[in-house]
Each structure stands twice: as structure tokens, then as C-alpha cells.
Amino acid sequence: MYGYIRPDGGTLRPGDAAVYRAVTCGVCRAQRRACGLFSALRLRHETVFLALCRAVCEEEPFAFSRYPCPLHPFSRRPMAEENAAVRYAAGAAALLAWIRRTDDLADRRGIGRILAALGIRRAFRRLRRAGVMGAVSGLSELLSRLSAAERQALPSIDLPAMLTGSITAEIFSADCPSGYREILYEIGDRLGRFVYLADALDDFRTDSRTGNYNPYSILYNNEQELAEDAEHDLAIELAALEGAVTRLPFSSLPQAEPLIMNIVREGLPCRAREILARYRTGAEIRKDGERPLESAGSDPEE
């Protein structure tokens, strides 16, 4: 999910930041155990967000212990113990890596395509090691439809954003506890749509120059008009995402609520503002006429 999903360290309380780091380290540890040491070098915030959302629905509080870290060999760091949510996020990390490699293969040419093919082979081995091969067949049709839209250079932002949302929704909601699948599906759907829109906007100038498929490059010549329409679309997805996460049963895991809400209310809008600022001075994300969201600072140390 391209690294857009992270908390805003400038508005995250120190205690909450410490919990986020411990969950991050716990997911990293589980990912190393499931997929190998080097897979953890590409740990992304989206798998931590997934672990937080799944943990709330699993109604299984995090337990923390100190473990050695390969990147910090002279100290033992607080890490979330493995539970169902942490293990699932570690497996999903392998699945997301495979999806990224598949997407790279479609975009690359020449030596880049060869390297992408090798990356797919490595990602596929990690899928088998993580035990999430069953999810591949469930996503294949959606990935094929998304690939077809890209090959046809479809002049629509809605269809690829919808397909990306459906892919993310399936990852978020697969094998979830009874009663919470609908909520997790909605969270994944809106998050995937937001990420697709943000990534297309982020890559607009590069793709316009290289000719890689980007719906915005096909639909817009005027950057001011693009920024205005993209801001509106991103704000819609943010509002819908916030509505979905507020339905999570936070009473079962109150320590996760400030982290999830910070990512949705502060971290994602901050990333959107950063991208929009390239196209329009002072661009801000607003939600249905509300005041602009507060500016953001740096994310917490991983």
C-alpha cells in the first residue's frame, strides 16, 4: 500500500507512540519468523494498521515483552507478543509484497522487468512460507481485472480505485471473527480506494513523462483542476474511512483506539496534503465543509 499509511508523530502522545513502536516491532518479529529475516527489512506501516484493526476485532489485548532485535543487537526492545492479529498481519505482509511485485512486473520493461520477475519468485516463496497461499486464488480475479484496466489504459479513476479497494478489503476481512467482517471489509475498501487515488496523484508527473498508465494523466492536462478534483475525492474516502473505523469495538482494546484514529484523522490527511502541495500552494484536505485538519509532524520512530 505504498507507504501512505502511518501515524502523525507530531500529534501522537508519547505513551501511544511507545505502544505503536512495540506493535511495529511485534509485527516485524512475527514477519521474520513467518517469511524470513530479509522480509522484515521492508516492513510497512500498513501491516501495523492491519494488526491494530484485527486485534480490536479479535478482542485480544496486546501483551508486551522484551526481545533482541537484529537491527539493535545490543538491547532488548519492547515488542507485542504474537497473537492472532499479529500473525495475520505478518502473513498479509507477504501477500502485499507479492501484489506489489506483480504490479511492478506489469509496469517494467527490459532489465527492470527481469528484476521484477525475480522479485515475484521470492515473494511467492514467502507466501508459501507464511501459509497464506489460499488468499492468492481469492484475489486473482480482482488482480486480473485491475491488470486489464491498466493494459487498456482505461480513462477512468473510479474502476481501478474500486478494484484496489476490493483487493484491500479482502485482505483486511479474510477469516475475521464472526460479526466484524463487514466493518473490516469497509475499512479495507475505503483505505484501498484512498491509497490508489493518492498514489495516482503522487505519480502524476512521472507517469505523464514516462507514459506509464495513470488515469489522472489521461483525464487531466491542468494541474490546478486535477488538484481540486483529487482533493474532493480523497476527502470523500477519508470521511467514509473514518466512519468505518468508528464502528470498531474499541472497548475490547482501548489502547488501539488512539493509534487507529490518529492514522485516519491525522496521518493520512497529512500525506494527502504533502502530495497536493506539489500542485497547489497551501492545498489542504477538508472533510465535507469542516475546518482544515491540523498540520502534521514526523512519524514515531520505528
Keywords:
302 residues; two-stranded antiparallel sheet; mainly alpha; disordered C terminus
Overall average pLDDT:
81
Q: Taking strands numbered 1, 2, ... along the chain, how are they ordered across the largest sheet?
A: 1-2
Structural class: mainly alpha
In percent, how much strand structure appears in the residues? under 5%
SSE string, helices as H and strands as E: HHEEHHHHHHHHH
Helix content: 55-70%
Tally of helical runs: 11
Q: Please compute the radius of gyration using only Cα atoms.
A: 19 Å
In the predicted model, the low-confidence regions spanning at least 5 consecutive residues are 286-302
Question: How far apart are the termini?
Answer: 18 Å
Task: Give a short account of the largest sheet.
Answer: 2 strands, antiparallel
- Per DSSP E runs of 2 or more residues, the count of β-strands stands at 2
Shape: globular
